[in-house]
Backbone:
């Protein structure tokens, strides 16, 4: 479903993503973990066709991103970390805009939208996006993606800005979609989410993947919790020393 | 006082000074932090300085034109007084409406106020701060008010001291009245409504000014005899017009204005302590099903075109950019003998505004670039409405000006030549505007281009429009042109048309290249 070979992105001399190989199968929830600035968002941007890689290839749903980007975008769903929604559009207008772009059946979508709005407690569809809070925009963005039920979902820190109930619903919904055959690729800082939801995780640091396996395999290999493994692999200083010095 | 000065220094009048993030982020991603290097400038002072600098010339113009009118009218002091009461009532009304619009927003619980309420700042300081925000927004209107008042004072030679005191009373009266209504209506206005209101006020002020200068050409003696005009204006001179009480010869009315001002001030302080910065906005929650039932034209116009049209309707800057050249064109038609003299200024203004419109649509898209890039659409689909919408709307406005000329029996067939020329010029403007909004974006969120780019765009669009249109009007409207003059006109016109074609193609290619690279 998601394949990348030798994926690299350079910004001048700075290598943001360095020769990454990924292989995510259908129906899998794949967690992409890493500290700030490790290259998670850059990778997700390349995988979704919003950023051109410096080198390497990407294949989504068996299609090459270089030649068939529009077809791929039609079948995937992307929830970015910062929900950039046209500020002058009202909530329902943004959803209509998405329906029009994806040529979706309006009547069918409206039913789905109502269901999703009820689930995520959205009652502000008449409000301008520019007047919405980060959390409100995040929920709206989620609905615009989930209403289409895409075959592959890319989510960059999807729970940031969501209240506990909405975050829980989202997690359950993603697991349900995965059971039904959708592929989920998500980045998160919350290791508990990765531990509970993901079939496999990859840890990226300084642009390179330093570990990739199922959570249980990782735990078995390192004989530690996911948090300890993550910190052991990515943290440069001892946390206790840092706290003591503060 | 210290708290207020800190607020003004760091926040300024921030509801008007919305700085962009996206535009700056791209150019300063890894760059230095300018604020740290240069030290914090006084934002309020910066804003006020810019406003004063832009309002002062207008105040001088208004003073000069009013002065000339009142010098002529001084032979008929009663007519002069009627005119003065009318204009001052009108400017006072503009001031009140504008002040209340901004005031209702600044006295509501905005995100900024929400933060300030958590800090150890007195509510009275916040009240004064909000009052200053509203007051600063009316400096432009105030320049018309003061210019007009001084024009009357010097033109008709009224006793200066008494007149200045009456003017101060009038300003105090309308400010206290506006402040009271603002605080009572706190939260019932939005930022976009305030901006729209300010645009309409500015447009209204400009055209009132134009109208006033037009009076200069009217026969004053006949004006004095005209019972209809006198009747029409008589209300502003009557005792019922609260907005002229401060200037009334009736002492009771002046005293009433003083008492009313004091009363509203006391009432304002009393009310502001209780209701200011409270959540007074009505919360009407519509059912999602009800909201989704609304008639939409998204499928008819296509996603991007529909979205861009929405931006056009909801952005007050767009409304100004579209209305100003159109109303100006119509206005010129009233004061000039043929449609040629009104169409030329319309096109010269509209070509630059067309570039602004294309730039604003493109920069708005660029601000949500991350979203657009995830959508299954080509970049051509995205950019096409940014070019076509401004071009088509400006052509439609151009045709509308022609239709008005036709109705007014002022239509000149030569204006038909302007149709293909305006299409060419509007297309060129749209390409340039879209291109520079990507390559040289402005620092502020609502500013599509940098200052340098604005000069380049102005130079190309207005320069070429003038270089094409002026020779045409010369050729058709000036009689007995000499042979070399005719030749020069043709050469300049044809040369400029060729240059417009070449530049359109050049900027189209550059735009395509830069869009592909995004």
Residues:
């Amino acid at each position: 479903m998601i394949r990348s070979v030798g994926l690299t992105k350079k910004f001048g001399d700075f290598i943001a993503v360095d020769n990454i190989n990924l292989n995510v199968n259908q129906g899998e929830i794949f967690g992409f973990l890493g500290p700030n600035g490790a290259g998670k968002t850059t990778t997700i941007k390349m995988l979704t066709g919003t950023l051109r890689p410096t080198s390497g290839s990407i294949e989504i749903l068996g299609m090459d991103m270089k030649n068939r980007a529009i077809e791929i975008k039609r079948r995937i769903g992307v929830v970015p970390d910062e929900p950039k929604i046209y500020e002058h559009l009202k909530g329902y207008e943004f959803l209509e805009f998405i329906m029009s772009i994806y040529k979706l059946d309006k009547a069918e979508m409206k039913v789905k939208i109502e269901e999703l709005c009820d689930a995520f407690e959205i009652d502000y569809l008449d409000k301008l996006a520019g007047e919405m809070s980060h959390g409100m925009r995040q929920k709206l963005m989620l609905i615009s993606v989930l209403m289409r039920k895409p075959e592959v979902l890319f989510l960059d820190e999807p729970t940031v800005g969501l209240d506990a109930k909405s975050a829980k619903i989202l997690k359950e919904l993603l697991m349900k979609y995965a059971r039904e055959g959708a592929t989920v690729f998500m980045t998160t800082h919350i290791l508990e989410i990765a531990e509970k939801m993901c079939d496999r995780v990859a840890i990226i640091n300084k642009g390179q993947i330093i570990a990739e396996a199922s959570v249980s395999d990782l735990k078995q290999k390192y004989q530690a919790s996911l948090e300890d493994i993550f910190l052991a692999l990515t943290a440069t200083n001892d946390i206790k020393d840092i706290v003591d010095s503060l | 006082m210290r708290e207020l000065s800190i607020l003004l220094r760091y926040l300024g009048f921030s509801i008007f000074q919305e700085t962009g993030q996206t535009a700056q982020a791209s150019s300063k991603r890894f760059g230095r932090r300018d604020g740290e290097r240069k030290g914090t400038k006084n934002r309020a002072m910066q804003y006020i300085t810019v406003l004063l600098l832009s309002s002062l010339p207008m105040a001088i113009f208004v003073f000069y034109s009013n002065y000339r009118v009142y010098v002529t009218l001084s032979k008929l002091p009663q007519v002069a007084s009627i005119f003065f009461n009318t204009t001052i009532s009108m400017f006072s009304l503009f001031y009140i409406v504008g002040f209340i619009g901004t005031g209702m927003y600044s006295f509501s619980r905005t995100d900024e106020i929400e933060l300030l309420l958590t800090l150890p700042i007195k509510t009275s300081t916040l009240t004064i701060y909000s009052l200053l925000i509203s007051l600063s927004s009316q400096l432009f209107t105030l320049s018309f008010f003061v210019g007009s008042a001084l024009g009357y004072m010097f033109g008709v030679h009224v006793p200066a001291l008494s007149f200045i005191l009456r003017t101060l009373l009038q300003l105090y009266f309308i400010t206290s009245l506006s402040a009271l209504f603002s605080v009572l209506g706190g939260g019932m206005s939005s930022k976009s409504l305030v901006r729209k209101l300010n645009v309409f006020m500015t447009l209204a002020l400009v055209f009132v000014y134009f109208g006033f200068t037009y009076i200069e050409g009217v026969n004053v003696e006949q004006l004095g005899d005209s019972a209809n005009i006198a009747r029409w204006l008589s209300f502003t001179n009557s005792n019922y017009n609260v907005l002229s009480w401060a200037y009334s010869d009736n002492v009771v009315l002046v005293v009433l204005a003083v008492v009313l001002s004091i009363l509203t001030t006391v009432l304002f302080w009393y009310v502001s302590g209780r209701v200011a910065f409270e959540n007074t906005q009505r919360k009407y929650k519509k059912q999602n099903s009800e909201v989704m039932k609304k008639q939409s034209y998204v499928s008819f116009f296509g996603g991007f075109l529909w979205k861009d049209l929405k931006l056009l309707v909801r952005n007050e800057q767009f409304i100004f950019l579209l209305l100003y050249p159109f109303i100006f064109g119509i206005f010129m038609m009233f004061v000039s003998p043929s449609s040629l003299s009104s169409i030329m200024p319309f096109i010269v203004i509209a070509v630059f505004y067309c570039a602004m419109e294309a730039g604003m649509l493109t920069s708005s898209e660029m601000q949500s670039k991350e979203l657009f890039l995830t959508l299954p659409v080509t970049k051509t689909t995205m950019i096409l409405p940014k070019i076509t919408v401004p071009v088509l709307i400006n052509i439609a406005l151009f045709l509308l000006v022609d239709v008005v000329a036709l109705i007014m029996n002022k239509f000149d067939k030569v204006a038909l030549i302007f149709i293909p020329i305006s299409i060419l010029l509007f297309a060129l403007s749209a390409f340039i505007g879209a291109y520079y909004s990507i390559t040289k974006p402005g620092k502020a969120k609502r500013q599509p281009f940098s200052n340098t780019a604005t000069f380049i765009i102005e130079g190309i669009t207005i320069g070429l429009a003038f270089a094409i249109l002026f020779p045409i009007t010369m050729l058709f409207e000036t009689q007995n042109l000499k042979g070399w003059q005719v030749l020069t006109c043709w050469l300049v016109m044809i040369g400029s048309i060729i240059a417009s074609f070449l530049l359109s193609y050049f900027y189209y290619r550059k735009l395509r290249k830069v869009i592909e690279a995004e």
Notes: The radius of gyration of chain B is 26 Å. Chain B has 23 helices and no strands. The longest helix of chain B spans residues 483-517.
